[in-house]
Amino acid sequence: MKQLATRTTGRLFPAAWLAALGLSLTLSLTLTGCSYIPWLGGEKDPSPPAKLGPFSPQVGVRTLWTTKVGTGTRKRQLALVPAYSGGRIYVADTDGGVAAVSAADGRVQWQRQTKLPFSGGPGTDGRQLVLGTNQGQVVALSAADGNQVWSASVDSEVLAVPLVAGDLVVVHSLDDSVYGLEAATGKQRWRFVYPAPILTLRGSSTPVLADGAVLVGLSGGRLVKLDLAGGVPIWEVTVTLPSGRSELERVADIDADPVVVGNVAYVGSYNGDLAAVDLTTGDILWRRTLSSHAGLAADGNDLYVTDSDDNIWSAAPQDGAGRWKQESLRHRLLTAPALLGDYLVVGDLEGWLHWINRRDGTLAGRTRVAGGAITARPVVADGRLFVYADDGTLAALSPGALTAEDRAKGGATGAGSGAAVATPDLPKPLSNTGAGPTL
Fold this sequence. Notes:
By secondary structure, this protein is mainly β. It has helices spanning 15-21, 404-410; strands at 7-8, 11-12, 60-68, 79-80, 83-85, 88-92, 97-102, 108-113, 118-124, 128-133, 137-142, 148-153, 163-165, 168-172, 177-182, 188-193, 208-210, 213-217, 222-227, 233-238, 259-261, 264-268, 273-278, 284-289, 295-298, 303-306, 312-315, 322-326, 338-340, 343-347, 352-357, 363-368, 379-381, 384-388, 393-400.
């Protein structure tokens, strides 16, 4: 099973640190959770979170409403993210709580306690919610009132959001199996099994609907396109070839969700590459060396990536050429970026939301919505931003006109620490040798 993950606080432990602990990397080793791990002998964290410095605000961030819904993730590494549909935000917590909240005013429409240890979801099509547990259970609930519709079992923990695609639910489990379950009953229709490496990150990418099929990022740097009808691979491509002498050095998982724009899928891997893949053929259009596991966002004009050191990059989607790099939030355990108008927004380990100018990468706004971490990507719907923090805080925000109070919060009149590197040194495109699609 893929529970050899040694990632805590969103990072992978270096091999020297593991050796110092005297730990052997065997099938019994499992380090989980997202809480802080103290360093041996009182040593300081070699990669401390960057301190938030002054900046020149460009946008007035308005918190429209905030509410507390359930217990959140209890500081565990889970894929419990907010889902938007039909004017409602749906959220779940690790203690089995599920709620539907009005997106307009934050009022709870209904709330249910299932007592199930949820670890991934909810995914929704507006009619039902589908969630996975850390015990390999998949459940469907009515979106109207939260009543259970069906329950099914898979062979491993679910650490990805289930995808509801028509009459099928696609579930990616921690052992890198992908299941096709009937949306009406939960009955298994097909299963795709991939042999996972010995050592992987603790996490799974969420399946993405694309071109009438489903894309799934796998451990070992693989991306696969599966036929929805039978789960048969249409193509499979290696985005990043694992390299290094130890299993730890060879970790090259795709934990970030693929992002589809037109006929191109953008994908990032840990310890590996950022790449653009042709959806029809599986050919890699370009690759650039950039490690990422938090995620990325893209549209027809821009590509944005949160890398493994929590730098934020802007790149040209046509060839991956770097445009700017925002470095002032390093090691703050940032979420994947969300796009809202002229800004991209990321959450961090202390409950802050950072608004970044899409044009030049400068910090444009900042507001705190929770006392603890935000690990789920913010959701954008109807011109607003919705964020679900790890402590169960749910909030809605929007950009607005800049006021004197907003300027005072920035604490600076110049660029300050919010400036971005205008010409980032993004590595040149890599050769595609050995990374072509396979059937």
